[in-house]
Write a structure and sequence with these properties.
The complex is a heterodimer of chains A (362) and B (129).
Chain A lengths: L7 H6 L3 E5 L2 E6 L3 H10 L2 E4 L4 E6 L3 H8 L13 E7 L5 E10 L2 E6 L4 H10 L7 E4 L3 E7 L3 H9 L1 H9 L5 E3 L4 E3 L8 E7 L3 H10 L3 E2 L2 H10 L36 H12 L4 E8 L10 E4 L2 E11 L4 E9 L5 E5 L2 E8 L4 E2 L2 E2 L3
Parallel strand pairs in A: 3-13
Antiparallel strand pairs in A: 1-2, 3-9, 4-7, 4-8, 5-6, 6-7, 9-12, 10-11, 11-12, 14-17, 14-19, 15-16, 15-18, 16-17, 18-19, 20-21
Chain B lengths: L8 E2 L4 E5 L5 E5 L1 H7 L2 E5 L6 E2 L4 E7 L3 E5 L4 E6 L2 H4 L3 H4 L8 E5 L11 H9 L2
Antiparallel strand pairs in B: 1-2, 2-3, 3-9, 4-6, 5-8, 6-7, 8-9
Classes of the chains: A alpha+beta (362), B alpha+beta (129).
Chain lengths: 362, 129
Amino acid sequence: MGKRTYLYKKHLNANAKIIDFAGWDMPINYGSQIEEHHFVRKSAGVFDVSHMTIVDVSGRDSKNYLQYLLSNDVGKLVDRGQALYSAMLNHDGYILDDLIVYRMSFGFRVVVNCATREKDLRWMIQNTDGFRVSVQEKPKLAILAVNGPDSIQRFCEAVAGPIAEEAQKLQSFRGQELDACFIARTGYTGEQGLEVILPEEDAPEFWDKFLKAGIKPVGLGARDTLRLEAGMNLYGQDMDETTSPLSANMDHTIAYTPAEREFIGKPALIAHKALYDAGEANELKGLVLESRGILRAGQTLITDQGEGVVTSGGFSPTLKHSIALARIPSNSKTCKVDLRGTPTPVRIVKPNFVRFGKKIFE
Amino acid sequence: MSNAPEDLKYASTHEWIRIEDDGSVTVGISDHAQDALGDIVFVELPRLGTPVTAKQEVAVVESVKAASDIYSPITGEILEINDTLMDAPEMVNESPYENAWFFKIKASNTLEFEDLMDSDAYCDHCANE
C-alpha cells in the first residue's frame, strides 16, 4: 500500500482506477481517460494533486534566499498571491526540479514535484546557509485543481460566499489567501482554472461541493495528455538533472536581469547559452504525427541535423492524432521516427499544441 | 473481476476465440485486456488472405498507455477483418466480445483449440498475472 491523500475514499467512490505514482496510490482515471480529457477542454474537471510537495519559506531573508535558489526571479512577485514558474538548478546549470512559487503574507509558498520531494527538501535546506530563513514542508495541506472553460463559474457556484467573490476577481497567475484556503489562478492543462490549497481534512467537503456543481473528477492519465497538448514539461520525462533549461524550452523562465543577481547554476548556464546560441545544443520541440500511430517517450528520431529522442508522446484527444515533445538538434528541418519498424515522417512545430480548447500551431 | 464469457476460449496473451457454426474462428481481445490497456485509440489489422500461425503477431492496438501486439491464437488464413475498428477503436473498450471482434480465421488445425483455456482457467490466469 502506498501513501494516500485525504481524498482516497472519494476517489474509490468515483470509480477510480488506482495506480502507484511515486509511492502514492493515485487515480489514473475514473473510467475513461479520453472522456475526462474532453471534459476539461469543454467544461470543468477537478484533480486531486495533494501528493505534490508544498514548502513554505519565511523569515527576513526569504526573498534573497529564493533569488539565489531559483533561476527565475521572485523579485518579480510584487503583490501577495502572485505566482511564478521557475526551474531549480544545480551548480552545473541542470534542472533539479520545476516549481511554482507564490508570494504569501508570511513569505513564499513553493510547490514542487512529488517524485523529487526528498532531493528538493535536502537541496533547499542545504542552501539556506547564510540566510535567515525557515524552510518548512506542509504535508497536511491538500491541493485541488479545477480546470476548464466553465471551471471558475462552477467553482464559484460550488463554494459561494467570500471564496467565490475573491475567485471571480483573480487574474491569471494571481492568488489570494483566505481564512479557509489559498486560491490561485494557476494550472497544468492550458485551460483557465483555479488551484485550491487547504487543510487536508477540509478537502473532502470541497470535493463533494465541486462534484455537486457538475465538476467531474479527472485522473492523472488525462492530466498528462492535457499538459502535453498545452506543451508543458513533465519533470523526469522532458527534463531532469542531465538537462539544461535551454534544452527544455525553459529559456523564458531564466531571469538574466538584474545582471547583479547571482543564482545557483548561473555561471554554467551562461556557458550553455553560448553553445545554444551557436546552434550546437539540442532543443525541445513539438512533433506532430498526422498519420496513424503513436509517438511514445524514448523513441529515437532522425533529423537532417542528427539524432533526437521523444521525451513525452501520446495521442492528443483534442487533435485526434499523436503529438510529442522531443529533444532534437537545433535547426532541424525534417524529422523521422521509427514506428514499429517503419520510418515515418513527423512535422516539427513549436512545443505548444492546444490552448483554451483550440489548436494553436501551424 | 473482469468478465469472460463461458462460450469462448482464451489465449494466455488475452485474445478470445469463438468457433462459429461454419467452422471459422472469430478473434478479439478480452475484457481484462481492454481494461488493462485503457482507452484504445488505434487498431491495425492484418490483410485479408494473410496466412498466420499460432502465437504469431498479426495485429496491433495502441492505447493511451502503450502499443500492444495481438497474436493469432491459431494457425490458418485471415478470412475477414472488422474494419469498423479503424474508425471506431473505442468499440474495443465498449464491446470487447460483440462489436469489437478483430478478425476471422479459417483454421487449418482444429487440434490447436485444445491448447486454449476455458473461461475459468483464463480468469485464474488473469488473477495470477
